[in-house]
Design goal:
Chain lengths: 333, 333
């Protein structure tokens, strides 16, 4: 069994900087024709100058692959002129509530105070990408944020709002209510629940934010992805940390899935007789939601078991050392 | 502010064997006059011969402190004669469903098949101690086990059944329904929720089974402990693991709280103006539930800040390196 995908896309990706960027970027660029690159570096990507330098570093790291890094600015209350100047170089602005995840210390404290900026983004046609979690109890954070999504979706009906890495059935219900909402979902939230993280021995390499939720949440996410809900896009949220930051007294949040994501998705869709919908989930939906055209690159996968590496450098990937049913067999560079 | 406790007791304790036993047993024996010792060693304590040898090793390790290790047998479908022979040397039999926690591989697979043994224990007056979790989703395991407690409590009305390390408001509700049910609660379940384990950076040293639950569960547990519910007993479930088994790719379950438990309890009870109930919670309730008399030893605590050690040997304790408001100031050996 085989499938050929046209320009698979990863609509939520952490590429880091420096040596880590050089290590992980080619792994994404090999399988994906483009990706939405998150701006939560230290310091964050919050100026065009920094964004251009980061984009150049990424382009250098991904060679020889043809790969489009769709850049994002870290949300600030930017003046309209700044947003207008940035518009052609960004795919959106990423909003983090303060302190909710890795390198979000400079995020937004007062979610009411952002609305002038959102209005400007709406006028300029710049999408808003959101890490939608409150500071509440860990299992409730996403659900508690949903009213904020609803408020913005209603108030800014022409603003495209992307609910990033959704993890709950409730988020999918909200997606139905507003046509200007879209969402990304990761492969690890399609495949794991809190049971996988903490039900047996504790698994730091599966620990991420938002934390995976209940089996019924995963079932709802799977169902929406498998039927290729037109506003649900694949976004890996692949987030590498060196092993010593994971197997530690305080473990950083993030699952490194980039090199195994497509193979795992093909396996999931194949097991559910939904391979015909994979193209939409990993590429077409994103093109339509964002109105982007990726470079044309075919990626072929086949049902042929292989063992995922235990490590990529000092990063332990999702499914490390495990046998995957499907693999990427052929890529156009 | 000071308090003197008469023979504090830890009604759920893991003392391990060998070097670890020799390291941790004195830390318990310094603060507690007695403890219920769990039998889930490898292999389990499931014969009188092994139990006597383990008891002797404990007595050797706790010298010079006067300390009663109340021994438990690992649940098997023991013949009545075996139970009758063991009765005077054990405080109870500890039942683990198979595979639910550390060293429970030899536990019970068929919970219906145990009832002959429970009937014999009821006749002989031997309490049943239970790790009450199913194999369901990690957050539901205790709640799913409650009907089994209810069934046994009803079927064996003269059998004392101790629900070990309860973590939910629902377990406390069940406690009200059957007078032959009792329960232990740990200090870490009184002080933490899932937020502490996985809400920020992941904290392997706070990872235990059952996993801490929601804020409302913790609130219910605190309320019951602070009013010294007469069938709720302190049991630390203190479970040391060497650091390399915690800060690892797969982290063992267990919080090592023995050396800080009494100080943390005093702080908790003091903050809630409930110090007058601490004696019942850490000693008197257990004496009444089990009908035991511990050695007479006074332990004095005072409100005097101190910093908990970062390590005891290669074990990282609960509240490692943090400042505790209360401390044990004086112990009778």
């Amino acid at each position: 069994m085989e499938i050929t995908l046209e320009s698979p896309l990863d609509m939520h990706l952490h590429l880091r900087e420096g040596a880590m960027l050089r290590q992980v970027a080619p792994l994404s660029a090999r399988h994906f024709a483009g990706a939405v690159v998150m701006p939560n570096l230290t310091p964050p990507v919050d100026s065009l100058e920094r964004l251009r330098a980061y984009r150049a570093a990424i382009m250098e790291a991904v060679a020889p692959f043809t790969f489009t890094p769709w850049m994002t600015l870290f949300f600030r209350p930017y003046p309209t002129a700044t947003l207008a100047a940035a518009r052609d170089e960004i795919i959106g602005v990423k909003l983090y509530p303060e302190g909710v995840t890795t390198n979000s210390a400079g995020g937004v404290r007062d979610l009411e105070a952002v609305e002038d900026t959102l209005a400007a983004m709406e006028r300029l046609g710049i999408p808003l990408l959101v890490h939608g979690e409150t500071h509440g109890f860990v299992l409730d954070r996403e659900a508690e944020f949903l009213p904020i999504y609803a408020r913005w979706a209603k108030r800014f009906p022409r603003l495209t709002i992307v609910m990033e890495h959704i993890t709950t059935a409730a988020a999918l219900e909200l997606l139905e209510r507003f046509p200007n909402l879209a969402a990304t979902v990761t492969v690890h939230h399609l495949l794991t629940t809190l049971d996988d993280v903490a039900g047996g021995l504790l698994q730091p390499h599966l620990f991420c934010k938002p934390i995976p939720k209940r089996p019924e949440d995963r079932a709802a996410l799977q169902a929406a992805a498998l039927r290729a809900h037109p506003r649900l896009m694949f976004g890996s949220d692949s987030a590498p940390h060196p092993r010593e930051r994971k197997e530690a007294a305080a473990c950083a949040a993030g699952v490194f899935s980039a090199p195994v994501a497509l193979a795992l998705l093909a396996g999931l869709f194949a097991r559910h007789d939904a391979l015909a919908n994979l193209q939409a989930f990993v590429s077409d939906n994103a093109r339509r939601v964002y109105g982007v055209t990726p470079p044309a690159r075919r990626v072929r996968l086949a049902r042929r078991p292989w063992q995922a590496p235990e490590r990529y450098g000092d990063v332990v990937p999702f499914y490390a050392g495990q046998t995957l049913e499907w693999q990427v067999t052929d890529v156009e560079p």
